[in-house]
Amino acid sequence: MTRRFVSLQRAGGIATIAFDRKEALNALTLDMIEELDGLLAQVDGATDIRAVLLRGEGRAFLAGGDLDYLRVAEDAPAAAGATIHCLNRTILRLTRLSKPTVACVHGVVAGAGLSILLACDVAVAARDSRFVYAYDAIAAVPDGGLSHFLPRTVGLGRALKFAFLKGELTADEAESLGLVAMTVPAPQLLRSATAIAQKLSGGNREALVRTRRLFRENLDRTLEDQLEQERTAFMACAGTAAFQAAIETFFAERVARKLKSAGQ
What's the rounded Cα separation, in Å, for the pair 205 and 12? Predict the structure, then answer.
């Protein structure tokens, strides 16, 4: 039986995808990337799933890519290109997923692990986490969209400082820069991340996904284009039953507050 290195569990409307190659700190192989891509496609079309949580088994979330294949490859550029092509497809799928996503990270988060973290909507980190750039150690450039995500998240100057000078961040530093939404003690990590996934799963999925798309794509547009995209997305939300129900609730609560303040 072929071993699988990425698993999927479903519970309460949440899909938990776990990297499980703990003997290698979950370093990504081509097979793992393809498994992840397949599972993301599976949950994307699942009507019973309303949020997705990504985590790592063992001592790390994800320690970048497994470089053994490049060490033995006859044509390293071609081998790298094929693997990164697959990774790119998976990153795009993750950012375009029709469900909100939560990264639940601990231990080492390095290289492509940073890209996967930043491709998620929200990240929660254990306080023992270490965020490692890693590409300078192999005389390479970022992959998996890190050169896109990182400057947009922390700013160009801080991104260059991380890549050129610092190379590693603590969990507290990552939180202060906005790489993660919050840090928690390691024993509380999964519970805290699951609570966030549950909160997101209870929201209006269409509005959440459209909001994510607007936020992610805004830096590639002019203000004029972004204003039009906002208008189009708001119109789409306004046509949903959830929007109409929320509006009715809003006005009913406002009337109730006025009556209460008037002493009626």
Answer: 15
